[in-house]
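dude i think i finally got it to work??
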Amino acid sequence: MSETKVMSLRLSQELADELAAVAHVEDVSISAAIRAAVHRYVATCRSSQAFKKRLKQRLEEDREILERLAA
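look at this
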């Protein structure tokens, strides 16, 4: 990793305990397990047509707002 960003994550105690147990069994750090889950989540979103549609809508909304501010 060239650059990293530190982020906070709030989990219920139950989910945090389960995550720690899974990471321990898989012999990876909790951070590595979270990174893998985030990679899968992003990949799933990127391949979703519904996500792509919402993304295009958001881009158009943001473009309209930015153009209005620039005028």
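The CA atoms of residues 22 and 33 lie 8 Å apart.
im so relieved honestly
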